[in-house]
Amino acid sequence: MSHIIWTLGRHEAIRFGALRRALPGDISARVLSQRLKALEDEGLVVRRDFGTMPLHVEYSLTSKGRALDAELQRNEARVRSLDAAS
Prior knowledge:
By secondary structure, this protein is of the alpha+beta class. The protein has helices at residues 2-9, 16-22, 29-41, 63-85, and strands at residues 14-15, 45-49, 57-61. A 3-stranded antiparallel β-sheet has the order 1-3-2. Strand 2 (45-49) and strand 3 form a beta hairpin. The protein is elongated, with a radius of gyration of 14 Å. It starts with a helix and ends with a helix.
């Protein structure tokens, strides 16, 4: 699920299809939907339904999600510096 957090962190808000295309690999719509729901239940992601037809839903990080994204970025920077030192 860290790829979802990382990808959402690069966007202020993003629609489901765009998020799915932005993720590495080939995640099914069903699996992405389940993971987004789990992240929403944990308070990391907010789902905004515009109530229009065709359906318009956007996802974004909550403040808790942004804090997790920042920690993931710090960890990535540490790993890169360790790789560079080896």
